Amino acid sequence: MIKGHGGNIYEMAKTLRCSPWDILDMSSNVSPLGMPPGLKVTLEKRWGEITSLPEVDNESLRVSFAASMGLEANQVVAGNGTTEFIYMIPKALKVKQVLIVGPTYSDYADACRAFGIEPIFCLAREEADFQPGLDEISSRLADVDTVFICNPNNPTGQLIPGQSLKLFIETYPGVRFVVDESYLPFVPNWEAESLASVAAENLIVLQSFSKIFAVPGLRLGFLIATPEIINTFGPFKQPWTVNRLAQIAGSFLVTQSAFVWEVAKFVQKERKTFLGYLEGVNSLCPFPSYVHYILFKLKGTLTAPELFRLMAEHKILIRDCSNFHGLSDRFVRIALKTSEANKRCSDMLKKVL
Predict the structure, then answer these.
(1) What secondary structure does DSSP assign to 239-301, as a single string?
(2) For residue 332, is it left (φ>0), alpha (ψ between -120 and 50) or beta?
(3) Within a domain: residue 156?
(4) 201, 232, 253: which is the final residue of a domain?
(5) Given 9, 68, 187, 336, which is the most exposed site by the fewest CB atoms within 10 A?
(6) What is the mean pLDDT of each run of 10 residues along the chain (353 residues)?
(7) 78 shares its domain with 28
C-alpha cells in the first residue's frame, strides 16, 4: 500500500549511505517554494499546546477553513491528510462499484480493495496527452455508484476544466463523484476551477494542505460536501486524528492566499524554463501539464527504473511511474523545485541520457 510512492528519501538514503537531506528529491510533488514564511514561528510560539489534547472535532480549524472557502463549517471535515478520507469513503458510503479515472494516484484503488471492492478504470489515452475524456467516462458509468477523479491529475498533470466537470456531475445525479483537488492550488486562479462551492448531493471534494504548503509531514486535509453527506461520516471518524500542531498550522495556512498565488506564478515560469533546458533531449518527451510536476515518456532503450537508478547514483530522486496502472516502464515524473535544483536536475538528465 505504501510501496511505490514518491518522496521516499529515507529509503534511498539507506541505499546510498548518506543523509536523507543530501538527496535532491524531484519525486515528491510538494511546493517548490517550501513552507510559507511565518509558519515555523507560529508553531514555535504555540509548541506548548501539545501538552493538551487537540480539539476533538477540529472546530476552530473547520470554521476558519470554511470561511476562507466561502462555506459553512458543517460542510467541512478536517482529517489526517486526504488519505484518511480516501480510506473512509468506501465503508462510510457503502460503496459497491467504483470507477477510477486514470492513470492516477494508487490509493484510490488500494482503499477500495481494502474493503473488498475491485475498481474498474477509465484510462486517459497517451495519444490525447492523457487528457480525460468526459464522453468516455460517461460510457463507463453503467452499474457504477462512485467515481474517483484527481483534478489536476497525478501523475499526468492534466486538468478537466471546472465548469465542464460541474456540468458533467450534474448530468449523473445517481452517481457519486469524489473529486480530489489536492493539486489545484498550483493552477493560477484555481478558485475558479474548484468545485468546493458546488452544493451537489452527489459530490465530495477533497483538498490538501500537504502539497501547496509543503507540509506533508503534518498530515492535513479536508473533505467538503453537503451537511447530509458530512453526517454519514460521523460514525466512522475517529477522534483526534488531527494533532494540535496541525490544527494550529491549518488555521494559519488558510490566511496564506497571497503565498499560494506566488507558488502558482513561480510554477508557470519555472516549468517553461525547465522544459527549455531539456530541449533537444529527444529521448525524453514531456506531456502538457497544468501543475508543478511533468510526466515524461522515455524513447530509446533506457527504461524508467534504469533512469531512476542512474539519477539516484547522483543523489537525485525522480519518480519511476512503472507502478501506475495504465502506464509502463517508459514513464517518469519530475516535480519542480527551486530554480537551482531544477537546473541541477536537467543538467544531470542530459548527462545520463
Answers:
(1) TT-S-HHHHHHHHHHTT-HHHHHHHHHHHHHHHHHHHHHTTT-TTEEE---SSSEEEEEE-SS
(2) beta
(3) yes
(4) 253
(5) 68
(6) 56 73 88 96 96 94 97 96 97 97 97 97 98 97 97 98 98 98 97 96 97 96 97 92 97 97 98 96 96 97 95 94 96 97 97 93
(7) no
